[in-house]
Amino acid sequence: MALSVELGDEISQEINTRVRALEFLIQAKGVAGVVETVPSFRSLLVYYDPSLTDFDGLTAALGGLAEQTSTAVLPPARQVELPCCYDPEFGLDLLAAAERLAMSPDELVRAHAGAEYLVYFVGFTPGLPYMAGVPERIRLPRLETPRVKVPAGSVGLGGSQFCIYSVESPGGYWLLGRTPAPLYDPRAEEPTLLRPGDRVRMRPIDRAEYDAIATRVAARAWRPSVT
Prior knowledge:
Strand order of the largest sheet: 11-8-9-6-5-12-4-13
CATH architecture of the largest domain: Beta Barrel
Number of strands: 13
Order of helices and strands: EHEEHEHHEEEEEEEEHE
Helix content: 25-40%
Number of domains: 2
Structural class: alpha+beta
CATH superfamily of the largest domain: Cyclophilin-like
């Protein structure tokens, strides 16, 4: 069974920080009966074992913790650097996006790679991060007609959000490039690379380095920069 704790009615860093704080407090306090938590932009879905707790008791416990989310101190955020190749072969919309923004492709790449992105939550497909931090000057509405298939690793923009496709899936983001970093690996001890609260930066690489990293990834001999 599950219940949803809603901490606001808008998408904002402040509300999302409270969502992550509530998840942290539940784990830190070891709230009885909770078996899994799933964060989103503005709410936390809490799965629980009804043989260990009941709805009223859990609601009371979570309500008390929710009141502490504005002052809770979270662990330091991880800093994650991911390589990204912005070649037109991978950045299928790079030229069109730059034209629409009245920028050169190089300017768009510099603006995109120069920003720091906050992972709000992971969802839609395994390992796919929903991230904020897109500079105002490179924001574009999502594509009017989504693609049926977007390759895994594709780096895309849509409105104020930035995402990296973790597996091949449909999608309506403008594709600027591709990372060889595996965001989802079901064989790994930790299958998803990114976590809510991570701070992410993209490091531009050329096609030769992309291929070299992809070879190491296939051999399970590559790890991203995480500090």
